[in-house]
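User: Is it possible to get a 3D structure for a protein together with its bound compound? The compound here is NAP. I've pasted both below.
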Amino acid sequence: MTRKLNKTVLITGCSSGIGRDSALFFQNKGWNVVATMRAPGGEQVLNRLPNVICPLLDVTDVESIQKAIQTALVEFGTVDAVVNNAGYALIGAFETLDAVQIRKQFDTNVFGLMEVCRSILPHFRERNQGILINVASMVGRVPLPLYSVYNASKFAVEGFSESLVYELENFDICVKLIEPGATDTAFFGGSSDRYNGTGVKAYDDYCAQLLPLMDSIGPAGSDSQDIAEVIWKAATDGRHQLRYAAGSDARAFLLARRILPDGLFKRTIKISLTPWALKTVGKLFYRT
Ligand SMILES: NC(=O)c1ccc[n+]([C@@H]2O[C@H](COP(=O)([O-])OP(=O)(O)OC[C@H]3O[C@@H](n4cnc5c(N)ncnc54)[C@H](OP(=O)(O)O)[C@@H]3O)[C@@H](O)[C@H]2O)c1
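Assistant: Yes, that's possible. Here is the predicted structure of the complex:
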């Protein structure tokens, strides 16, 4: 066991995007980082940094979760914070998505995250401290068209996390939710699942009209380093704040969700997903 004086964070999904930038951010701030990933064999950067290890962790494989936590404890002695970041989006009209695709979405974004929590909680309880940071999304409270199953998975993460607060505060374990808006990562590209698994064609025109526009928002959204900074703040601010909206779009849409009645909110979302809105109001939030 080495280097145990620093605080230690374990992060899931560090091969790219928000997870990777979070690993770099925490390392830069002097933390020990357990930067887990599904395929650490190809990693060339993180595993060469001081105080960083990259064990294999697939959130859908409980054994790999437990092994990664064991490795972290052997290497650093304790784990002070866990960032449940791993996830991807299943995108498309609900009828075009088959049961296997839907289960996989929940296996990763919801049940995988729960298994990571289940595996780390005994360690947190034993020490009467620990911070669980669950990366949800703005869409965990602001549903968007053609994201129904992904939305549902992030709603589940929100409900799960908010409920956990009650039972875990008795052990001084803190639960936090990060709610990023559109962020420029592989999320909008290769890592999403857009396969039409059922072959239903009825929604093709609607998808063709809307998805390219929604995809154009990703690269114009927040930098993943900015989201990493919000995650680091959540881990270090010493507050019992549950939710951290990340990105100006997330802050605006979450506010709209809170104050507008459903009908008006739906109209706001529909209007905001038009080329006109993206070119005008969108400039407030996106690098269009
Ligand atoms: N980008 C956005 O606009 C946005 C907005 C709100 C919330 N989020 C959330 O932010 C989180 C990170 O996404 P990102 O934007 O950084 O996208 P990303 O670059 O695609 O990163 C996703 C990460 O999750 C990993 N992952 C996927 N399935 C996994 C599994 N079964 N076990 C372990 N790791 C797995 C991926 O690993 P592989 O390389 O092995 O696939 C990758 O490292 C996700 O939870 C996402 O829902 C993103």
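The longest strand covers residues 173-180. The chain has one domain: 8-284.
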